Amino acid sequence: DAGVIQSPRHEVTEMGQEVTLRCKPISGHNSLFWYRQTMMRGLELLIYFNNNVPIDDSGMPEDRFSAKMPNASFSTLKIQPSEPRDSAVYFCASSFIGGYTFGSGTRLTVV
Amino acid sequence: GEDVEQSLFLSVREGDSSVINCTYTDSSSTYLYWYKQEPGAGLQLLTYIFSNMDMKQDQRLTVLLNKKDKHLSLRIADTQTGDSAIYFCAETPSGGYNKLIFGAGTRLAVHP
Predict the structure, then answer these.
(1) Is B105 part of the contact surface with chain A (CB cutoff 8 Å)?
(2) In this complex, do B101 and A98 lie within 8 Å of one another by their Cβ atoms?
(3) Is B88 at the interface with chain A, CB within 8 A?
(4) Where does residue A22 rank: exposed (0-12), middle (13-18), buried (19+ CB within 10 A)?
(5) Biggest alpha carbon distance in chain A?
(6) Best residue of A7, A40, A43, A50 to probe chain B, by most B CBs closer than 10 Å
(7) B71 Cβ contact list (under 8 Å, min separation 6)
(8) What DSSP line would sit under B92-110, residue for residue?
(9) How do residues B22-50 score in pLDDT, each as one tens digit?
């Protein structure tokens, strides 16, 4: 099993541009989570899905952020327009029952 | 409410034991977890404990759970330089769907 796969690993973009982060969960896992990690705020849960359905998006910072899970094997997190304060490492994780498996993260830098 | 608190930094000498502490607020949490994050990597599940247990041992790792005080600890015996990382405590609050709430993480520094 290749684990949770995130792409890209690094993304540098200019303020105002659209950014799309991608995640492939582990096959058979029915829950998927998007987290953001910064030095100031630590790990923040942005949104999570269960059986492809968004359950709780209360952690999404504002309307510029959106997430989709069109099928059990793929999810995206989109930021439009991006701002410098969105710079962070974004993690995707999936689980079936119990502990999560995390991806390696996408390091986003907005200049 | 949901909140998990940890001390931010711990420094130990190689070969000594490390004890990382955590407090949580949701008394109905089913599982409590310890994750390890090495530089530039994602979080790796280290160990977990079910809420009806008070201790779990796994090689060099010992987890102690005090449900009355909502206190969780992770003890690493014979700490090695490779143990240097950030350690996160996490709880699963009531409500299902496996949602995890993480603490801020404790940075463990191991020095010779």
Answers:
(1) yes
(2) no
(3) yes
(4) middle
(5) 39
(6) A43
(7) B21, B22, B23, B65
(8) --TTSTT--EE---EEEEE
(9) 999 877 777 889 999 998 888 999 998 98
pLDDT of residue A100: 86
Query: What residues contact B82, with CB distance under 8 A and at least 6 apart?
Result: none
B8 close contact with A: CB closer than 8 A: no
Residue with tokens 């269960």: A50
Instruction: With beta carbons less than 8 A apart as the criterion, state whether A29 and A15 touch.
Output: no
Which tokens hold the place of B47?
A: 């160990």
Q: How is residue B53 written in tokens?
A: 């247990």
* pLDDT higher than threshold 60 for residue B97: no
B30: left (phi over 0), alpha (psi -120 to 50) or beta: alpha
